[in-house]
Amino acid sequence: MCQEPAADDGQLHTLGILEELRAKSAKLWMTSSELYREVDKLLRELANPNLHDLTSDMPYRIELWDRYAQHIRWVVAAAGTITVGHAAFDAAIAAYPNEHFTLRNRALVIREHVPKGP
């Protein structure tokens, strides 16, 4: 009696290809998932209004506020001395006179610039 091994081999071959496709798809999903997490982390870092890697010996911060003075949009500068803080604050106001700025030492507001008019 003659059996047809070619038909069985074809099904096994197809199952092997499907298993390989499943493994490759899982690997692709893991790679894209990891890539998504990395891109999301970088986007969150860009959205962070603070300067990065600021040490505690630079307590004076010049902050740019949103138009409603509800949230800090950006920490423009950080300084270790009040003299440099004042100079950076004056430079920020000169460059962007229609923006709301504060010069702070942690929670203490030292100076504030609120633009006039709308």
Explain what the structure shows.
The protein is of the alpha+beta class and 118 residues long. The chain has 2 domains: 1-47; 60-113, no CATH class. It is 48% helix and 21% strand. It has helices spanning 5-47, 82-95, and strands at 60-65, 72-79, 101-105, 108-113. The protein has a 4-stranded antiparallel β-sheet, covered by helices on one side. The longest helix has 43 residues, at 5-47. The chain is rod-shaped. The N and C termini lie far apart (95 Å). The mean pLDDT is 82.
Brief synopsis:
The protein has 118 residues and is of the alpha+beta class.
Helix vs. strand class: alpha+beta
Q: What proportion of the residues is helical, as a percent range?
A: 40-55%
Distance between the termini: 95 Å
How much strand content do the residues show? 15-25%
Please give a handful of descriptors for the protein shown:
single chain, about 120 residues, alpha+beta, 2 domains, 4-stranded antiparallel β-sheet, 2 helices, 4 strands, about 20% strand
Explain the layout of strands and helices:
Blueprint: H1 5-47, E1 60-65, E2 72-79, H2 82-95, E3 101-105, E4 108-113
Antiparallel strand pairs: 1-2, 1-3, 3-4
